Amino acid sequence: MALNPEIINAIAPVGAIGVFAGVAGWVATTWLKVKNGYPLENSWGKPLYPNGGGEAMERIKLLSQENAQLRAELGSLKDRMAVLERIATDQPSRLAAEIDALATKQLN
After folding, report:
1. Strands, DSSP E only, in the chain?
2. Per-residue pLDDT at 77
């Protein structure tokens, strides 16, 4: 059974638009995956992570170091805050007694 050329000429633009839309969708999806850091897939369905280069790894290392420094500083500030809270909430007579005990300890 032979297809009528008029039918082929009527269907061809729709097919071409469908193929173009499919390719454009694939390109857009791939671009969004790369932009947002999602892994791409190879022909076997295994993830392929885009190569961020050494610059990305260096940036991660610097951010990790800064995070560790900030955590250490936060820990020391929490300790100081606990001491200040204890001083503010203690009874004045007890605080005076502790100061006097420290003074006499240094003199001896």
Report:
1. 40-41, 47-48
2. 96
Q: Which domain holds residue 46?
A: 1-50
Distances in whole angstroms, Cα of residue 14 to Cα of each of 7, 11, 19, 24: 11, 5, 9, 15
Whole-model pTM? 0.39
Distances from the Cα of 50 to the Cαs of 37, 42, 47, 73, 82, in angstroms? 8, 12, 10, 35, 47
**How many domains are there within the chain?**
2
Give the pLDDT confidence of 91-101 residue by residue, as tens digits: 778 878 888 88
3-class DSSP assignment, residue 89: helix
How many Å apart are CA 21 and CA 29, to the nearest integer?
A: 12
